[in-house]
Amino acid sequence: MPVILEALDGAGPVAANWLRGAIEAIADRELGAGHALPLDKLGQFLLDVNHQPRARRLAFELIARIDPATADKLLTGMLTDPSPELRYDAVRKIVQQGDRALAETNQPAARLLFRQALTFAREVIQVDDLSKKLRALGETVDLPNLFGFVMKWKVIGPFDSVGGKGWAAAFPPEQGLDFGATYDGKLGPVHWQDFVTTDDYGIVSMNQPFKALKGVAAYACAAFDSAQAQEVELRLGSENSWKVWLNGEFLFGQDEYHRNKAIDQYRMPGHLRAGKNFILVKVCQNEQTEDWAGDWDFQLRVCDRLGAAVHPAPASGATGKGAAQ
Amino acid sequence: MKPRRAFLTRLAAGATLAALAATASLGGDWRQFRGPRGAGLADETNAPVISYGPKSIAWKVPLPGRGLASPIIVGDRVFLTCSSGPQQDRLHIICLNAADGSKRWERQFWATGRTSTHEKICVAVPTPTSDGQRLFAAFTSDDVFCLDLDGNLIWFRALMRDYPNAGNTLGLASSPVVADGVLVMQVETDGDAFVAGLDVATGINRWKLERRKRANWSSPVTLSGVNGTTVVALQSSAGVCAIDPATGQQVWNYPDGASTVPSSTSRGSILFVPSFGITALQTSPDAQPPKQLWRSNQYRPATASPIALDDHIFAVNDAGVLSCGDAATGARLWQLRLKGPFTSSPVALGKQLYLVNEKGLAQIVDATKPEGEVVSELDLGETVLGTPSVANGAVYFRSDGHIWKLASP
Questions:
Q1: Which residues on neighbouring strands pair with residue B267, listed in sequence order?
Q2: Taking the CB of residue B4, how many other CB atoms lie within 10 A of it?
Q3: What CATH number is given to the structural domain containing B274?
Q4: Cis preceding-peptide flag for B255 (omega within 30 of 0)
Q5: ipTM of the complex
């Protein structure tokens, strides 16, 4: 079993599921036959953070099957674990302690525990929950900073997207960035203008600079100074059709309108070079007239693969409340 | 392929199929969304009359994750899917013993596609299906797993890796069907839309049809084709077309448009389509265009799919009103206000309709009464969005937290 777990280290998402299926089948067979699972070896594997996070999580779950009490104790030391799932469960234990303190009307203890949990939380659902708990206790929480939402943008538009044609059309901003240029837009000449969102969740509403238009496309561009070259994830939420480029490289896009919007809806791996980087977002609005089809916006954050905010070098200040101010 | 390897492959395949066939059972199975042919009717004679009460709960078992997918029943085994985790990206496939609800096995996998959905639902929405030998479990993340009935993975497709825009951020809901050795996957979204025929033995595309890019949550249903074959009816906003599952070739087409949420249902060769209310089509197993028998906007199936039982057609509207009509003419016979709202679809065992509303109130309607009558209720105490399943004289419900088996004590 540890050998197959190690094979997960270099496995892609598809192969990983094959290996996982094999490990679970072996575990079922061994436990069904009354045999023990190799707790020591599984433990060694779990505690070696060089192994693939999902493989370590699987080792943890196997340990939990045979010794749940020990597994639970191990979680206590996993607040900074590279495995998002182990970290999530470790944070959850602190949150539960905070909830208990709150139930006992020990607000100072609850406040401290929630603060500690928020320091280590990376999953959106936990960060959001903890922020609400802390705000209810009178604490200030800088959500844009915690999440790493990009707040400072330059925007340009509207361009013509009647009939949905704008998503596929390559308007001038995606052919090259020139912040001093003027182009022909849908309603006349258009040029880049500064736009800063103050939304807690970094929502950039194109309805603000361009009014509530239909059948249109617009672009937003952010400069992001990175202290060093690094691999990051750009995570976007939008209920409009959109495309994203990083330093001119197309990352992904989805031609879909008004289905749903959520933080981290789309996760795009990207490479930041040292120094200035440019994130370009195209967001289109269709011609639906229902009252629930009015949003023309997106939210975007830069983070590591665990979801921890990656902030720009101080001089840039594109993310967080500081940027908004 | 070299001869020796080909021989060994055939040998292995033959041995596997022989072993699998030994576990297959036909009578009373409920192998897909809304059971045999997707009609919502149990293939059972002498069906028991169930009345809810404390003793009617044969068993109730906690689940490790959320789900709307119906349980399916193959022989003495119950299969269902769940999703869990902060991002709902842990996918569960579970096999229980139908007799007592004890777990035979569980497999968990990692979602490879996007898992963002409307908060009301989750990633385990499409109902799994089975050909009696294999289990096919699809998820909103476009992950499709084929396992044998003992939980061994046979093949796996990560469709969103192959077709990156084939995602709907509200979630996908179409449940696949298996027919003539092909798993028919209807994956229709605004960003990409297709129907794929996956070989049941390998998961490889036998064919792939490009479809209109428009979100669609309806599920395919099966009808009889020529010479004992099957045709698959694919519903969408464009209408309904029937295809030969072996080739993907179109057999007939009804182009008048149809709903993208409730699915069609059938009685014999008549297909009742959620189109302009309900449109009844007399279908032919060959390439003859379907003949419209009747159309009535007195039926307004909302999320729940209609069901045809004996000579009657039933549909539940947004307000939770159950309408009953003459299946031959479409004439509405009676209406009965139920306690709604309903996300799940009604199913039938014997002469009774089994429904459960979103609040988890299970209701049995005696369809033989002149005006219909709710003859039994049971509060399951949890939100229930999944359609019940019926097999071997029992009804199965599932929520995000539990699965129940209800039967006559």
A1: B270
A2: 8
A3: 2.130.10.10
A4: no
A5: 0.89
Structure tokens at B206: 């036998």
In chain A, what are the domain boundaries? 2-75, 86-141, 147-324
Q: Which phi and psi angles does B285 have, rounded to 5°?
A: -65, -20
Choose among B202, B96, B190, B197: nearest CA to B146: B202
Which amino acid is present at B5?
A: R
Q: What is the Cα–Cα distance from B301 to A201, expressed in whole angstroms?
A: 38
Is B170 in Cβ contact with A123 (below 8 Å)?
A: no
Q: Which domain holds residue B402?
A: 28-407
Residue of B nearest to A236 (CA): B116
If you measure CA to CA, which chain A residue comes closest to B143? A14
Q: What are phi and psi of B20, to 5 degrees?
A: -65, -40
In a domain, B18, yes or no: no
Residue B138 lies inside a defined structural domain of this protein: yes
In this structure, the dihedral spanned by the alpha carbons of residues B122, B126, B127 and B130, taken in order and rounded to 10 degrees, is -130
Specify the pLDDT at position A19: 96
pLDDT digits (tens, 9 = 90+) for A147-194: 999 999 999 999 999 999 999 999 999 999 999 999 999 999 999 999
Residues 6+ apart with CB under 8 A from A314: none
CATH for A147-324 is 2.60.120.380
Inter-chain contact B110–A85, Cβ cutoff 8 Å? no
Do B161 and A24 lie within an 8 Å CB cutoff? no
CA-based torsion, B243, B249, B254, B255: positive or negative? positive
Q: Compute the nearest-CA separation of B155 from chain A (Å).
A: 8
| Separation of alpha carbons B111 and A91, rounded Å | 23
CB contacts, 8 Å: A126 with chain B: 86
Residue of A nearest to B106 (CA): A24
Is the Cβ–Cβ distance between B175 and B68 less than 8 Å? no
Per the structure, the count of domains in chain B is: 1
For residues B73 and B98, the answer to whether their CB atoms sit within 8 Å is yes
Rounded CA-CA distance A123/B268 in Å is 50
Does residue B169 fall inside a structural domain?
A: yes
Within a domain: B365 = yes
Integer Cα distance of B175 and B38 in angstroms = 10
- A320 pLDDT band, cuts 50/70/90, is low
